[in-house]
Design goal:
The structure is a homodimer of 514-residue chains. Chain A is an alpha/beta fold. Chain A contains 18 helices and 18 strands. Chain A has a six-stranded mixed β-barrel with strand order 1-5-2-4-3-6. A four-stranded antiparallel β-sheet of chain A has the order 12-15-17-13. Chain A is globular and about 75 Å long.
Chain lengths: 514, 514
Amino acid sequence: MSVDKAEVFNLKEWTTKVKAFDIIAGGHIILLNEEEAMQNGVYPNYRVELHKGKERGVAVVDLTSELVKPGEIGIFKEVAADLKLKNGDKIHIHHITRPPSLDHIKKKMDGNSLKRDEVHRIIKDLMDNYLSQAELSAFITSVYIRGLTDDEVIYLTEAISQSGDILDIGKKPVVDKHSIGGVTGRVTMVMVPILAAAGLWVPKTSSRSITSAAGTADAMEVLAPVDIGIEELKEVVLKTNGAIVWGGGMNLAAADDKLIQIRHPFSLDPKGILLASILSKKKAVGADNVVVDLPIGRGAKIQDAKVAKALARDFIDISKRLDMRTEVLITDGSDPIGTGIGPALECVDVFKVLEGEGPRDLRDKSCVLTAKLFEMTGKAKPGAGFAMAEKLIDSGKALSKFREIIESQGGNGKIRIDDLPIGSYKHEIIADKSGRVHHVDNKILSHLARAAGAPIEKGAGLRLHCERGDKVYKGSVLFEIYAESESKLDFAIKAYEGGWNPIELQKIVLDSVK
Amino acid sequence: MSVDKAEVFNLKEWTTKVKAFDIIAGGHIILLNEEEAMQNGVYPNYRVELHKGKERGVAVVDLTSELVKPGEIGIFKEVAADLKLKNGDKIHIHHITRPPSLDHIKKKMDGNSLKRDEVHRIIKDLMDNYLSQAELSAFITSVYIRGLTDDEVIYLTEAISQSGDILDIGKKPVVDKHSIGGVTGRVTMVMVPILAAAGLWVPKTSSRSITSAAGTADAMEVLAPVDIGIEELKEVVLKTNGAIVWGGGMNLAAADDKLIQIRHPFSLDPKGILLASILSKKKAVGADNVVVDLPIGRGAKIQDAKVAKALARDFIDISKRLDMRTEVLITDGSDPIGTGIGPALECVDVFKVLEGEGPRDLRDKSCVLTAKLFEMTGKAKPGAGFAMAEKLIDSGKALSKFREIIESQGGNGKIRIDDLPIGSYKHEIIADKSGRVHHVDNKILSHLARAAGAPIEKGAGLRLHCERGDKVYKGSVLFEIYAESESKLDFAIKAYEGGWNPIELQKIVLDSVK
């Protein structure tokens, strides 16, 4: 008999009333009466299991002496929503049994390879809230140190892709694009209409910004709702061939969001988990052809071409075993693409490119990636993809398709560039000396744009007026800052004056040694 | 300029009012208004720094739309206590800067050795609440997988011992005893009076039970308050030479408690952390001579004698570098010591032994460990320690000293055995067949005792009437269950009948193979 069963002894099942608290706890938390809890051997941070009819959930315990009386249980919003609870409901709670995945995590910690069912169990226990942040972190740290075999990556990808909803539009081929660590929201917004106009199926799920000035979802949201459900996504795609939506609003590869929270502080992207994270989302939307943009160079996630190539190789091999065809383009990631930074400003770039003008680098990059998918799916003969992409732009077909998609997602398909809500407060940053632009820093651009209010304030951001290689003259405009309020504009200007300058002019003296 | 400074941009310092909530959150948590927080780029689980005058603290964010309005901040009990806040106070909050220790933890993750200041920084950031559970877990997992060098163990021990209060009684020699994974609360309670009676200084800090039926502190608490402060501990020891108190009530080696929370789910005792954990507490009370009881065998933490010896060697070497003298006795841990299991029942054993009778094994083990300390400190010549210990018992000096210590800690020094509050509800467990006792299982004993209500109900527990090797007859009493209520007694009886039987009789057939 397992000794851990003893846990059940000290906390009898007891029926309590629900008292719903309007607190989003960032986790599943419940409130118990301090005295009652401790008498039952329950302490803060203990985990218990809640039952109401068929609904079950796991929650972490907080204690109070005043807010909740014995016999009552305080429920925070996440738990109330999950278990469909309201004030006065009766529920059962008891100690949680030890999750089997803890043994599997320990196994990986000890350097062993996990079997398929063990990996699936870890993801299942994660989704059932059986794993604490600490336990999940132990898993990710172990994977980082010990690594994952190709088999384990496959199991993990399968498990994550099955951890949420699956999108099956019943059509082929379904294409997708992914950029590793790039700042390319606008590229997606240019590509999707071209691909859709060509008759390929492209249900593009994207993310909101975490640290950048605008995620693809933030930018698209300027034009149409992106927080739509999976059924609506299916409708839009079946009607127009494409869509650009917020993946977070759907329940696709749901486990990945939980894993990402832990990886972030250490920038832990153990290769296996990165691959599983990306590929699980592609699998969940039914993609069969994927083009990956892998930018390298200064400011990009990966600097070394050899490292990039090895990652690309893994991507292709692993996705093949998952019945997906992937090709990887290693691109130059040291420069920003386009001129706008911020949701609405990026939309301006997108519309201009689809109208046949706009920033050349944005047009070219979008066509190169689109071309790859055309050739992979046989839409175009080898080498003919780029011309096909350009033709769809220049004929206006990509632009009408874009407007169709916007309308179909619930936006105003007839919106004009002048109507795009860029911030009304503007400030020009002037060059105080002449010189050649040596580098334009993506990270600093993001930070300034965020200081101005992006992405929450959709009109905020920057518009560049120079790029690497340009010769600028004292007095010319380097870039403009846009904001939706005077105070935010000031805040961003102060940041720039405080030293956050994204434009590096060529130096004569690189360093001095004494 | 470090990119992370950008964190400061999106959350201006703002003054908010404090609204104290009566919730013990098991961590440092604050409540912000949902809309206001998100506008400032703050999400659930974000960490922010709070300032009020000189008081600073770090807290994790929860969000609400109703309970706290913009401009207000909801404070849970831990934060309110830490920063000395009350309703209506104005405080500043802003994004937290990235803790330097994250880089050090990453360094260990990557398999490198840490320098002294890096280890100290991790403990400092831990104590300042800069590290989340996930980040702390990443550190402990990394230490488990990568190991610690002897130097790192020294640095860690120093850092943990300095993380809280230090006890300096200004006397020598200060002796201590530690049992690794044993169930020996009563041994401590017998040893301390003998050591004190001999004139050694023994400020014994002990823990409460986590999974056992009674920690030393729980048992001592039957006789006297154990939750005293460090100043009072010093007084008691200077007056009587000894004390037995609850370490958790003091702030000694404070970082250790935080580390233990993370180690527990995986039973992670990476050797280096175990040593640092134990030795830091000895250092914090100023011990210079330590005897370690290392039980091995069935049911004990360590089964292998070689492993035990290696651990013992590390203990001795590391403590020497910390200016402590340690000796280790490897003992047989497969049997319970004494007859009582549970706070009051163990006190009965202790008093009986100090009166010169009582369970022989308890008397012998206590004397053996005490003898070692006598010889280490020169109180007794080599080989003469055991006799000295026995004499202090048989002369009654240890018993009077015990009564003195109880009185000095605020208890009733004149308490009689008959007054000890063992549970009034009793049930005898009768042998249903004859046989020789093969094994008495410590873990199952603990679980039954806890089912009966120990350690929270001090009178609850078990009293054994047989030990390994005894021949028992059908109808004889194997052990008794004690409880403070009928319902608890029933609960424990049901547990026993459900299969939790601690007494294993010798089997004729060990196994059968088909």
